[in-house]
User: Which sequence fits this backbone?
């Protein structure tokens, strides 16, 4: 059976160990700040105001519609896109975050839009054509079934072209192309 003296000594020892751990953690030298990579710099080149068109290729939704995109920097590692268009009588808004993970050597991104409740998480690389190629799963309009998607984006100083595809292999369908120019 424990007595009061043993409990007090145990409590003092535990308190001393906790204090020593806290002091050791506080005295640890601060970590160096992570430096942005070349890929982060490439993403930063997309920051700005853009205008152009969204062209739908999906059956029953074909057409070309005006669009704008505002891309802002979120520190030196991330960009955020605020994309808007008005197509088929519907106001479309979407926002996404894009970055690069140096540990996996992949571009990473997210996307949400006002037309559905999907939360898209994307991963990708630069392909041989110099395009950022991203992949994710999302449902097609009117379906709950997740389908593989991919996009390719080719940037120049004052333009970008973003092509979207759904499906895989022989089943892959070109859904949409966004063509933008930097606002002057």
Assistant:
């Amino acid at each position: 059976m424990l007595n009061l003296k043993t409990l007090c000594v145990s409590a003092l020892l535990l308190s001393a160990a906790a204090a020593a751990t806290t002091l050791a953690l506080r005295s640890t030298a601060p970590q160096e700040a992570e430096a942005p990579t070349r890929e982060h710099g490439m993403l930063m080149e997309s920051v700005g105001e853009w205008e152009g068109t969204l062209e739908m290729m999906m059956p029953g939704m074909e057409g070309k519609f005006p669009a704008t995109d505002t891309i802002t920097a979120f520190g030196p590692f991330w960009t955020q896109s605020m994309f808007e268009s008005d197509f088929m009588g519907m106001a479309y808004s979407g926002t996404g975050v894009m970055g690069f993970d140096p540990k996996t050597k992949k571009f990473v991104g997210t996307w949400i839009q006002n037309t559905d409740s999907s939360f898209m998480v994307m991963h990708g690389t630069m392909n041989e054509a110099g395009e950022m190629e991203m992949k994710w799963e999302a449902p097609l309009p009117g379906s709950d079934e997740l389908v593989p998607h991919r996009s390719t984006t080719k940037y120049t100083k004052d333009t970008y072209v973003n092509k979207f595809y759904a499906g895989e292999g022989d089943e892959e369908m070109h859904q949409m192309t966004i063509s933008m120019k930097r606002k002057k």
